[in-house]
Amino acid sequence: MNSIPSCWAVVPAAGVGKRMLADRPKQYLPLAGKTVIEHTLSRLLASGAFAKVAVAISIEDPYWPELAIARHPDVITAPGGKERADSVLSALKTLQGLASGNDWVLVHDAARPCLTTSDIHLQIQTLKDDPVGGILALSSHDTLKQVEGDVITTTIDRKHIWRALTPQMFRYGLLRDALQQTEGNPAITDEASALELLGFKPKIVEGRPDNIKITRPDDLALAQFHMEQQT
Ligand code: CTP
Ligand code: MG
Question: 7-230 has which CATH code?
Answer without folding.
Answer: 3.90.550.10
